[in-house]
Design brief:
Blueprint lengths: L1 H11 L3 E5 L6 E6 L5 E6 L7 H11 L7 E5 L4 E5 L3 E4 L8 H15 L17 H4 L7 H16 L5 E3 L8 E4 L2 E4 L5 E3 L6 H4 L8 H5 L2 H12 L3 H21 L7 H9 L5
Antiparallel strand pairs: 1-2, 2-3, 3-5, 4-5, 6-8, 7-10, 8-9
């Protein structure tokens, strides 16, 4: 049982409970190490998803732009992570200082992205092309088909193959003493431009669709300048990522949120 595993790890890694954390698809809790430093204990739960890929990506990042892995138990699918303090989410900066938020995301990307070594145990971005052909019929076909073709073109024209966070946006970047750090990577390998997609339609929650989407043109321009990437390529990755997000929502049995599709519609005139 999960509680038994938690107790075992607390003993083996010499940890003490130190408070709750916001709910996650996996079990996550604050702990205190023997030296008094704070850390985060994270365990996969049944159906919890990609913790192995997350761990592999975080070990590769090794603290450059992301929280550091302090210990890993592969058999029990558990991670002990350095805690980002004070831990404020980057979403708190939006919309009042959205330019600062985008600048922080660019800095994090630069820290994370390095060439992927041969044999790294992470999925290839190009393999997700099949998601568009197998898409449930409840999304507009013209958007899905355009996204599928564009996805293949973007992957084929990649000039770099790097280890990607895979879900980099305002909720997954936290304030730390050393600067902004990413958490909860999906872990994938491919074109660095993919990383910008989720940044364009986030954060969700308290901000209305129009509030976020009206920021998109300025975000695209800033991302293009900051990353040395053509603006139309930023828009293209935003488009395909928005469509893919809604495909994943349907696959998980959820209800299409609308904002990613609204973004896809707005980006159509700007695609290559």
């Amino acid at each position: 049982m999960l509680s038994t595993t938690i107790d075992e790890l607390m003993t083996e890694w010499d940890l003490e409970p130190a408070g709750d954390l916001p709910l996650s698809i996996n079990w996550v809790g604050r702990v205190r190490r023997a030296d008094g430093s704070g850390a985060v204990l994270k365990l996969a739960v049944p159906g919890g998803g990609h913790l192995n890929d997350e761990a592999t990506a975080l070990e590769f990042f090794d603290g450059r732009g992301a929280v550091r892995v302090l210990a890993r138990d592969r058999e029990r699918n558990a991670l002990l992570l350095d805690e980002a303090r004070p831990g404020n989410q980057l979403r708190d900066v939006v919309p009042a200082k959205d330019e600062d938020a985008t600048a922080a995301l660019i800095t994090v990307m630069r820290g994370l992205h390095r060439p992927a070594p041969d044999g790294i145990a992470l999925p290839e971005l190009s393999d997700r092309a099949a998601k568009f052909t197998a898409c449930p019929p409840r999304l507009p076909r013209r958007l899905v088909e355009r996204a599928g073709r564009l996805w293949t073109q973007l992957c084929a024209s990649a000039t770099e193959r790097v280890v990607l966070h895979g879900d980099l946006h305002h909720d997954n970047v936290l304030a730390a003493e050393s600067g902004w750090l990413a958490i909860d990577p999906h872990g994938v390998v491919g074109d660095p431009g993919y990383e910008v997609g989720a940044m364009l339609y986030n954060p969700f929650g308290s901000l209305a669709d129009d509030t976020v989407l009206d920021l998109v043109p300025a975000r695209i321009e800033q991302l293009a300048d900051g990353l040395g990437m053509p603006a139309e390529r930023v828009a293209a990755w935003g488009f395909v990522q928005a469509v893919l997000s809604e495909i994943w929502t349907l696959e998980d049995g959820g209800v299409v949120t609308g904002r990613p599709l609204l973004l896809a519609e707005r980006l159509l005139p700007h695609l290559p």
